[in-house]
């Protein structure tokens, strides 16, 4: 059961799961889940593992070990020279047009997990947490940032072009930036011709 709980919490990401949600999935009672989580927490700590289980907002969440915070910060500060993947671009487009939006809603649109794409966009400061949805578990809502507007040369979100399916023939979508790195993107006023 502990192995399954570990996998479920990892899959749930930052939204975490309550003991009741875990019990429903495992088809067991809440007390058995609470006992298993307590054992798993202890094993992770005593084993010197890089992850921990934290109790947050009435649920459980997989987190990194606090002792490794400096390494996590280094990773977050690493050069942003890798191109955005197609998954990250799709996720960014969905957030831009549907914000505020939860990870689950993004995944319903894309049909696949978007946890990694969201983390990439957060680390590059193109999106940010803008609140919590009024739903079970109070999932995080995501929206675009000022940096997003700067890199796409937009004064505000009202300047977003229509979604790709609504574009006139021959006009390229805003997110048609394959193999372009964040460092290569230029604000609209610097580009001279409005192209990105």
Characterize this entry briefly.
This protein is 43% helix and 13% strand. The protein is of the alpha+beta class.
Describe the structure.
The chain is of the alpha+beta class and 196 residues long. The protein folds into two domains: 2-68, Winged helix-like DNA-binding domain superfamily/Winged helix DNA-binding domain (Arc Repressor Mutant, subunit A, Orthogonal Bundle); 86-191, Winged helix-like DNA-binding domain superfamily/Winged helix DNA-binding domain (Arc Repressor Mutant, subunit A). It is built from nine helices and five strands. The chain has helices at residues 2-12, 19-26, 30-46, 69-76, 86-98, 103-110, 115-123, 146-152, 188-191; strands at residues 51-56, 59-64, 101-102, 127-132, 140-144. It has a three-stranded antiparallel beta sheet. Strands 1-2 form a two-stranded antiparallel ribbon. The chain is globular, with a radius of gyration of 20 Å. The termini are far apart. The model is unreliable at 176-196 (pLDDT under 50).
């Amino acid at each position: 059961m502990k192995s399954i709980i570990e996998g479920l919490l990892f899959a749930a990401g930052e939204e975490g799961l309550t003991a009741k949600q875990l019990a429903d999935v495992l088809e067991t009672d809440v007390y058995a889940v609470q006992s298993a989580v307590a054992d798993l927490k202890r094993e992770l700590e005593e084993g010197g593992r890089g992850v921990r289980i934290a109790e947050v907002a009435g649920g459980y969440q997989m987190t990194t070990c606090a002792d490794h915070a400096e390494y996590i910060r280094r990773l977050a500060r690493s050069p942003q020279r890798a191109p955005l993947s197609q998954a990250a671009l799709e996720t960014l487009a969905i957030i831009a047009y549907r914000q505020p939006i939860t990870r689950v809603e993004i995944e319903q649109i894309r049909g696949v997990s978007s946890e990694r794409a969201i983390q990439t966009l957060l680390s590059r400061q193109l999106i940010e947490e803008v609140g919590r949805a009024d739903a079970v578990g109070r999932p995080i809502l995501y929206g675009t940032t000022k940096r997003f507007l700067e890199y796409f040369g937009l004064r505000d979100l009202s300047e977003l072009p229509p979604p790709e399916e609504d574009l006139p023939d021959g006009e390229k979508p805003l997110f048609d930036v394959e193999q372009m790195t964040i460092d290569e993107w230029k604000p609209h006023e610097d580009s001279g011709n409005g192209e990105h």
